[in-house]
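User: Show me an example of a complex going from sequences to C-alpha cells.

Assistant: Sure. Here are the input components:
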Amino acid sequence: MQYSQRVLFSDDTLLHDELDDLFDRLEQLEPPPALIAHILESISRLPQPHRPVQDHPWDDLDSLVVRREKDPPC
Amino acid sequence: MQMRERTRTPSPEISDGILAQQSLAGDQRAFEALVQRYSVALFNFICRFLGDYDQACDILQQVFLQLYISLPNLRTGEPLKSWLFQVARNRCLDELRRKRAIHFSELEPVNDEDELSLLATMPDTSPLPEEVAERRDLQQCLQKAIGTLPPKFRSVVVLRYAAQLSFSEIGQVLKMPEATAKTYFQRAKPLLRAALTSQ
C-alpha cells in the first residue's frame, strides 16, 4: 500500500494527512456490557474508601510553624 | 465484541472532580457515571495498545478498581482523565513486559495469527461479505501496524487514534510537554507507514 501525504490543517494544529484519514477508520470497540456490570458489582461489594485519618485537624497549620524545641522557653 | 461508529465523548455535565467526591461520599451512581464516561475510551486504548481483547477486559477492571481504591488520595490538581490513562498505560506496559519475558524465556516464535486474534473475532455486521472482508483486512492492517511501534510511540499513537485525546491531554498522561507529544506522534508516522507498506 502506498500513502502520500495530503497537507491539511486540523484543529489540533498538526498537519492532517492520509495516514490520519486511514486511522480515522479504526473502529471503536465497545467493552461488553456484562464487563461494566461486573466492574460495578465488584466495586459495590468493596468497603467504602475513606479519606486518610488526620489525628489533629490543626496539624497541617501547625506544621508550618518552625519549632525550636531545644531552645529555652522565652 | 461490540463496535460502534467513532464518536467523541460528549462533554460532561458534572465534572470528574465532583463525581469523584460524590463517589468518595458513598454515592455509587457517581462512580457508575465515571465508569460510563471513560470505559469506552479506556477500553479502546488498552485494546489497541495490547491487541488483545480479553486482556483489555481484565485491565479495564483493574483500572477502575484502582480508581475506587485511590479515591481518597487523588490529587485535585490533576485531571482524572489523565490519571486513568496513566494507570491504564502502566498496566499495559506491565503486560508487555510480562509477555516479553515469557517469549524470551520460552523462545516462542512470534505468531502473526496470535497478534491478530483481537480482530479475527470481530463480528460481521455488514451484509456484504466483500465489504466485511475489506473492513476486517483494514482493521487487521491498522492493528498490526500499531503493534510494530515501540511502546513510547505506541502510547502516543493509540492515545491519539484510539482514545482520541488531544495532544495537550496526551502530554498530561505521559508527563511530557504537548510539543513533545506531537513530535513523538510525527516520528511514529513513518514507522506506521513503513509497517503498512510492508504488509
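The lines above are the inputs; the final block is the predicted structure for all two components together. Chain A touches chain B through 33 residues (CB under 8 Å).
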